[in-house]
Amino acid sequence: MLYKSTRNNALRYTASQAVLKGLSDDGGLFMPTNLPVLDKELKELAEMDYKGVAYEVMKLYLTDYSEEELKYCIEHAYDDKFDIADKVELKRAGGAYYLELFHGPTIAFKDMALSILPYLMTTAAKKNELKEEIVILTATSGDTGKAALAGFADVPGTRIMVFYPKDGVSKIQEKQMVTQKGANVKVIGIKGNFDDAQNGVKAMFGDAELKEELKNRGYVFSSANSINIGRLVPQVVYYVYAYTRLLKDGVISEGGEINICVPTGNFGNILAAYFAKKLGVPVGKLICASNKNKVLTDFFKSGTYDKLHVMDESGNFNEKREFMLTSSPSMDILISSNLERLIYLICGEDDLKCAAFMKKLSTEGSYDIDSLMKGRLKDFEAGYAGEEDCAAMIKKIFEEDGYVIDPHTAVAGAVYEEYRKNSGDTKNCVIASTASPYKFPEAVLKALGVEAAGEELTDKLNEVSKVDLPRAITELKNAEILHDTVCEKDEMKEQVRAFLK
Ligand SMILES: *Cc1c(COP(=O)(O)O)cnc(C)c1O
Q1: Please, where are the H alpha helices in 128-193?
Q2: Residue 471 main-chain phi, psi, to 5 deg
Q3: Is the whole model's pTM more than 0.90, yes or no?
Q4: Which of 176, 260, 261, 269 to mutate to test the pocket of ligand 1 (most atoms within 8 A of CB)?
Q5: Using a 6 Å CB cutoff, which residues line ligand 1?
Q6: Ligand 1, closest atom to CA 272?
Q7: CA dist 88 to 80, 370, 396, Å?
Q8: What is the DSSP letter of 342?
Q9: For residue range 218-274, what is the model confidence (pLDDT) as tens digits?
Q10: What's the 298 CA to ligand 1 centre distance in angstroms?
């Protein structure tokens, strides 16, 4: 199996080349030439541990990695950086199964992929006899940045630069990033929002002149953003794993369908769930949950992706869409990059058509899909939760089940509850729990009606939730600030040049 671009079907790259490149030169995203299916029974996978399932899933996508190479990557990624032996855990609450994906070093689900990406990348560099040093350029809405920094810090042959919206991430997210140690890391706040940061990074990936200049200095760019297939593939694993645990525990029987609900921003995590379905995991609906930046909800309901206008009750796009900061900042996104992969699939892998949609999005701010394409979205449901619904959900789950969830997860919980009520679909549902509540203690405690501020927030949350403080939080308390650069959004390129002197 090889990889092609969503904007050029003629391209062919091996998996390791696609991991190294991150993004195709034409601006497209890499897609497998054919989506694989599992070559083992799910009940066989149910007898394996997380690493075993990871190997069985990842080998299907990363076909040019040898068994030894892939197992080496998996062994080093999923070690005791994770605070539970199983790596992920299902918790029953609110009539659903919350899949806790936040037991890694930065207490957000992005650790699941970013702890293995550096190994996939350095292995790929060796396989392809890359001479240059790899420079990871990343835009973050909060969680990717720290998870990427933690993954790449002091990895030989790599450097990492992270751009985050200075006023668009939580205090804890910012502190996690600006205290990052490592001789090869640089963290920069930009005066703009996440889309500005992401556009700036994308522009540099497409800047042939800059790339040539840096190549002469011995550097080559790669991406740790969720557009890299080396991010996407490890995320498929936990949906397969979750299914096999439900099977093992007798919650479902062989062939029994589950629904999956995912709090969504850049559409990476839910796309991984879709890939799991394509692998042969019996999944009914994929429920795409947004916060009030509901561009995806509007898209799934109408077939129009409009980053400039918001859909009203009667389905019209007249009112201007504002970018809103919410208590779930990692979902404050209006340009959902990974959606391009779904668009590509539903337009019948028509690269020219897909490229035309993306062009229209960047020049006119919107595009409409036709009814044939819309018909291919039947696997998906979509909904959004505002700030009040999200807070109410945190409170409700705590009061009913004594279980504390973070605001991102609560958005998904609220959207799922609404879906179940409206559809009557009571299939078992797995909700991706994407961050530890300790990452967003202010919003969580406020939702629970508990007064606290500043340094006492996490201790207070500990008292209320009775969940042990994660290592990521205790370490942060006395950590030294090591990064304080802030730049304008059009100065990002100069910052890169300066770092790579
Ligand atoms: C990144 C992130 C999301 C959104 O994931 P996507 O793959 O971008 O859709 C949701 N919740 C948390 C906590 C995140 O960090």
Answers
A1: 143-152, 171-178
A2: -55, -40
A3: yes
A4: 269
A5: 108, 110, 143, 226, 263-269, 330-331, 408, 434-435
A6: 7
A7: 13, 39, 24
A8: H
A9: 999 988 877 899 999 999 999 999 999 999 999 999 999 999 999 999 999 999 999
A10: 19
